[in-house]
Amino acid sequence: MNTNINLLLRTDKESLKQKNRIRILNSVAVITLIIVVSISLGIFMLVQAANPESIKKEQADVIGKISQFQTRQAKLFIINNRVENIDEILKTRKDLTKTMSSLLAKIPRDLSVDNFEIDGSTVLITGQSNSLVAIGEFINNLTDMARKKEIIKSLTLNSLSLNVSGNSYQISVKSKL
């Protein structure tokens, strides 16, 4: 173990000189700061005394320039607010074109659609065909979609009738999205 370790600071001539240098530098820094502040205030006072209206004139110019942009800023704020609101509405809205295209893809060729209505959460499809095979295929396609919960959640057959004069079958189906 070493017994020559000294944890106390030495107070010799070199450390005293270093402390004096630091004090002198600190005082020079404070004096320089005071001089710079004094010169700045003096220049400001001279400019104010020489031309007192220049600062007020410059202030009025700046206020005028800022006021020109206030109307633009208000318009921009209103437009941004409306765009954000429209964006929120579009995020909550269902994509009806996707719903329509996927439902129309399930309709067989032999079935002609007379009416196709989408109202919020319900879809009403009415159509007619000369064969029951096309109507059966249509019903099977929609029930598969309802089972898989692809787009429609439930399916209701409103009516299935025979038009004797036109020799065609008419169907009306209602489904919930």
Describe this structure in words.
This protein starts with 12 loop residues before the first helix and ends with a strand. 8% of the residues are buried. It is elongated. By secondary structure, the protein is an alpha+beta fold. It has two domains: 14-89, no CATH class; 96-176, Gyrase A, domain 2. Helices cover 60% and strands 20% of the residues. Strand 3 (154-163) and strand 4 (168-176) form a beta hairpin. It has a four-stranded antiparallel sheet, covered by helices on one side. It has helices spanning 13-50, 52-92, 96-105, 132-148, and strands at residues 111-119, 122-129, 154-163, 168-176. The model has no long low-confidence stretch (mean pLDDT 85).
What is the chain-wise order of helices and strands?
HHHEEHEE
* Separate helix tally: 4
**What percent of the residues sit in helical stretches (DSSP H or I)?**
55-70%
Q: In the residues, how many domains can be counted?
A: 2
Q: What is the beta-strand fraction?
A: 15-25%
CATH fold category name of the largest domain:
Gyrase A, domain 2
Biggest β-sheet description: 4 strands, antiparallel
Integer average pLDDT: 85
The CATH architecture of the largest domain is 2-Layer Sandwich
Q: What top-tier CATH class of the largest domain fits best? A: Alpha Beta
Question: In total, how many beta strands?
Answer: 4
Shape assignment: elongated
Low-confidence stretches: none
